[in-house]
Amino acid sequence: MSNEFDISRIGGPDVMQTLEDVVRRAGDAALKYFRQGVVPEKKPDRSPVTVADREAEQIIRDHVLSTYPDAGFLGEETGSHGDNKAIRFIVDPIDGTRAFVRGWSTWSVLLGVEAEGVPVLGIAYMPAAGDLFAAVQGRGTTHNGSPVRVSTVSPLADATVTHGGLQQFTQTGIGEALIRLANACDIARGCPDFDGYRQILLGRSDAMVDPGVQPYDICAPAVLIREAGGRFTSFRGDETIYAGGAIASNGIIHDELVAALTATPYK
Predict the structure, then answer these.
(1) What is the pLDDT of residue 267?
(2) Alpha-carbon distances of 160 from 107, 130, 208, 254, rounded to whole Å
(3) Does the pLDDT at position 140 exceed 80?
(4) Where along the chain do its domains lie?
(5) Closest Cα partner for 7 from 87, 83, 90, 103?
(6) For the chain, what is the mean pLDDT?
(7) Could you give the CA distance from residue 254 to residue 261 in angstroms, rounded to a whole number?
C-alpha cells in the first residue's frame, strides 16, 4: 500500500459506500440487458457498444457531474467533460462488451478516480459473477468486503500469467511478446479485460499482460492491484496508465516480466 489518499477531497467517510452503490446501480441496470440479450452496434473502431453500455455510463456520469460539478470526467462512451486535473473520475461502463453480448459472466463496471493524474480510487463490479472489488490508495483492497492480497509466487518461471486477447498483441505490433511470455513463465492463459486482474486479486494468477488498452480500462485495476500489494506499470515499467499497455503482477516477478516483454519493442 502507498501513501493514503485524503478521501475528504471527494466527500466524507461515507463517500466510498456511496460510489460503490452507484457502481452497483449501473451494473445491475446492465445486468437486466445481459439476461435478456442485446444486439450490439459497431463503433468506428469496430468495437461493440450496446444500450447497456450507454445506460450504465449515464447513471455514473449523472451522479459524478451532479455531486462533483468541478471534477473532470472521462467515460468510454461519452468522452471527456471538464479539464480539472486535480480530481478526475474515469469510467468504463462495461469492460468486456464482447463477453457481455456473448453471455460470458466476466464483464465488469469500472470506476476509477485520479488525483493530479495518479489513480487513487478503484471500484470494479462484476454483476453476473457476484464480485465487487474496491480500493483507496493507502487503505488496501477488498473483495466483497474482505481484504485481499496478491500471491507470493516466484520466480517468473513458476508463475501463472494471464493476458489480453490475441488481437491486442497483433494489432499493437507485439505478437512476438506472446512467444516470449510463453517461454518465460510456467503457463500463460488468455483472460481478457478486468477478469485477468481479478485472477491476480484472488490469488489464481501472478501477473496480467494487457496491451492495447485505454485509461478507462486500467485506472481502477491500477489502484486495486497496487493496494493488494502488487505492481502496476506500463510495458516499460513506468507507473502510468497512459502508455497504451499495462503489466500487473504480484510485484515479486515484475522486473523479470518487464524484461521478458520489452525484448520486443512496444509500439
Answers:
(1) 47
(2) 21, 24, 9, 13
(3) yes
(4) 7-148, 156-261
(5) 87
(6) 95
(7) 11
Amino acid making up residue 128: A
Tell how strand 207-211 and strand 160-163 pair up.
parallel
Alpha-carbon gap, residue 120 to 8, rounded angstroms: 13
Q: For residues 60 and 248, give the distance between their C-alpha atoms in angstroms, rounded to a whole number.
A: 26
Burial class (CB within 10 angstroms; exposed 0-12, middle 13-18, buried 19+) of 156: buried
C-beta separation of 60 from 26 below 8 A: yes
pLDDT at 186 over 80: yes
pLDDT digits (tens, 9 = 90+) for 200-221: 999 999 999 999 999 999 999 9
Confidence at 128, pLDDT banded by 50, 70, 90: very high
Distance in angstroms (rounded) separating the CA atoms of residues 125 and 28: 10
Set of cell numbers at residue 51: 444500450
Per-state percent for the chain, helix, strand, coil, to nearest 5: 35, 25, 40
Question: Under CATH, which number does the domain 156-261 receive?
Answer: 3.40.190.80
Residue 266 has pLDDT above 60, yes or no: no
Evaluate whether 214 touches 193 at the Cβ level (below 8 Å).
Answer: no
CATH superfamily of this structure's domain 7-148: Fructose-1,6-Bisphosphatase, subunit A, domain 1 (3.30.540.10)
Sequence-ordered list of residues with C-beta below 8 angstroms from that of 254, at least 6 positions apart, any chain: 207, 230, 231, 233, 237, 247
C-alpha cell of residue 76: 468510454
- SS3 call for 206: coil
Q: What is the mean pLDDT of residues 103-128?
A: 98
